[in-house]
Amino acid sequence: MTVLFVCTGNTCRSPMAEAICRVRHPDWVVRSAGLSVSGALPASSNAQDAVRRYGGDLSLHRSRRLEATDCERCDVIVPMTGAHAALLRGLYPEWSDKLRPLFDVEDPFGEDAEVYARCAERISALVDAL
Q1: pTM, 2 dp
Q2: Of 28, 13, 26, nearest in space to 79 by CA
């Protein structure tokens, strides 16, 4: 199975989902991308700390913009919010059947470690639901 997690900037939510999913499903191909990425930025330090609790590692992560080929090459696309799902449906209607919007994950960008920990916990539940 190939899973693609999508958020806005690819520095918090989708990389955390990618890292946690890789730990839980080592036999899957797991990627993440953002809809509004400017440059190859590392995952936020709070995101890196939050996924370590789940055995994940984001030390080498660099943000990347979502490309049409990402959607084409995966089996499942998991947007982090309903708004992301709506944007993806508009951008790539041909791959709408791959969308698995399970619930909204609030953006922790700029928040403290506790908010990131709660976000990672919610993402962990999302990964378990896959």
Answers
A1: 0.96
A2: 13
Nearest to 56 by CA among 130, 124, 119, 125: 124
If DSSP codes are grouped into helix, strand and coil, which group holds residue 110? coil
| pLDDT tens-place string over residues 65-110 | 999 999 999 999 999 999 999 999 999 999 999 999 777 899 999 9
118's enclosing H/E stretch is: helix 113-129
Place of tokens 């993806």: 88
Query: What six digits make up the tokens of 66?
Result: 């979502």
Distance CA 2, CA 13 (A): 18
Q: What is the DSSP letter of 78?
A: E
